Amino acid sequence: MPVRIGGFGGIDGLAGYLAVARITHLVDATHPFAARISGNAVAAARIAGVPLLALTRPAWRPVTGDRWTGVADIAAAVGALDGPGRRILLALGRMHVAAFAARPQHHYLLRFVDAPAVPPPLPHHTLVVDRGPFTPAGDRALMTAHRIDLIVAKNAGGTGAAAKLAAARALELPVLLIDRPAMPDRAAVEDVAAVLDWLDHDIDRGV
Fold first, then answer.
1. CB burial of residue 200 (10 Å; 0-12, 13-18, 19+)
2. I want to staple 57 with a disulfide (CB 3.0 to 4.6 A). Which of 38, 52, 125, 158 is the partner?
3. How many CA atoms are closer than 13 Å to the CA of 168, on its beta-carbon side?
4. Domain 68-178 is of which CATH architecture?
5. In this predicted model, what pLDDT tens digit does every residue of 20-58 receive, in sequence order?
């Protein structure tokens, strides 16, 4: 099966690739926060006349015991951290860490899959290099050891990254949860079986 790694060059580049590669169906299985890529996919599929289906994880919903505060985006999360210094688990990966340098009074606990080439630009931080899957028990131990009193995370959904939320619930810690970005109008499902059903349905119709 052919595999391509790397960008397509925006909407026009992706539309051109769909045509040249004679793609008949496009499944957008990118991260729920990859708004630009998903928007490009919708536009390119429309140009190329290719049907598109998004496969996305169900968003997390609060349950009894959760202490969540929702914010719209990274900027809103940074804004919400005004005030006295706290010990924060910044569970966002490395892409948005620099934005939190605007709130240097806090001590940030960072967990990256790989060690960064350049140290994070936060005056007070601890970096843990670790790779999941993580467990609620392990994340409880991590938060307790580092005396965490707030978690900042994206509402990525799914089960793979939910351990930190279960740990926060058990420890009665507040969570600042960043909402998912708005996506363009598109057909979407939440499991692989539904994608296969969609493909089978189109094949049965001779599309």
1. exposed
2. 158
3. 27
4. 3-Layer(aba) Sandwich (3.40)
5. 999 999 999 998 888 899 999 999 999 999 999 999 989
